[in-house]
Amino acid sequence: MRHLLKLSSAAVIGGLLLSGCASTGMAPTSPTQSANSYQLPQAVYDGYWAMTSGINGEAAVVSFRDNMSYNYRFKCYVDGRFEQLGMEKYQLRPSATAMGLQYESEPVFSAIKVVKVEPKKSLILNQSFTDPQLQQALPNGQNYSYVYKSKLEPICR
After folding, report:
1. How many beta carbons lie within 10 A of that of residue 47, not counting itself?
2. Helices H, strands E: what count in the chain?
3. How far apart are CA 57 and CA 42, in angstroms?
């Protein structure tokens, strides 16, 4: 179940096929990051990104700040209300080709890349996994779509 939570909540990041600083035009965001490491476009750090489809019956929202990915899970009710079920945070670990996700002191378990971003509109992320079974099941990773939100709120359908 823990891997499932990591898979679903990390997927909230929601979505990356740009190839690092050269493609994004981004400079490293901290002094410890080299110019050759993958960087998320600055636009993803603004606001919240609500996943357009649910995962395991839950709605998801992600935000990026302070070299972290914050992944929020929600339950949606038929009357339009929603309830936050949890929040996981992952350290962002840049590599040459993607942004790794690390939970606490565990090894990096996943990597994300931005496929497309329209600032304050939409985001598509591609997530790949280090687990051999997930790599075999999803050799090209999996894409996730998000829409921009100025505040923390899921898309409930």
Report:
1. 16
2. 3, 8
3. 30
pLDDT in tens, 13-59: 333 222 222 223 333 444 444 567 999 999 999 999 999 998 888 99
Q: Is 68 exposed, middle or buried (0-12, 13-18, 19+ CB in 10 A)?
A: middle
Say if residues 137 and 149 touch (Cβ distance below 8 Å): no
* Alpha carbons 16 and 128: distance in angstroms, whole number: 10
- Residues 151 and 40: their CA atoms lie apart, in Å, by 20
Domains by residue range for the chain, with CATH: 2-28+37-149 (2.40.128)
* Secondary structure (3-state) at 62: strand
**3 state SS of 135:** helix
Q: What tokens were used for 56?
A: 């395991």
Task: Answer whether 0.85 is exceeded by the pTM.
Answer: no
Q: What would you report as the CA-atom Rg of the chain, rounded to the nearest whole angstrom? A: 15
Residue with tokens 């901290």: 30
C-alpha–C-alpha distance, residues 147 and 123, integer Å: 6
